[in-house]
Amino acid sequence: MDGMTGIEAAIEICKLLPNCKVLLMSGNILTGDMLKEAHEQGHDFDILAKPVHPTVTIDRLKAMSFVI
Questions:
Q1: Phi, psi of 55, deg, nearest 5
Q2: Where are the domains of the chain?
Q3: DSSP 8-state code for residue 4
Q4: What is the predicted pLDDT for the residue at 68?
Q5: Mean pLDDT of 11-40
Q6: 41-50 mean pLDDT
Q7: Is the pLDDT score of 36 beyond 70?
Q8: Which residues lie below 8 Å from residue 39, measured CB to CB, with a gap of 6+?
Q9: Is 61 left (phi over 0), alpha (psi -120 to 50) or beta?
Q10: Residue 61 and residue 24 in contact, taking contact as beta carbons nearer than 8 Å
Q11: How many CB atoms neighbour CB 31 within 10 A?
């Protein structure tokens, strides 16, 4: 994404929709550092490391109470 990371986008989305549930998927080696920064700002996100098998994604979404 140009100009914004997925974590930054998630933070902005959560500001607009506070009840929104976010599941991030990343293959970026710096994601841990970015998640730590977000946590320090009061944002906690669930994340899966790429590559991720579709069944793992489905299981995580079910655990987050999404209807599938």
A1: -70, -30
A2: 6-63
A3: S
A4: 58
A5: 91
A6: 91
A7: yes
A8: none
A9: alpha
A10: no
A11: 19
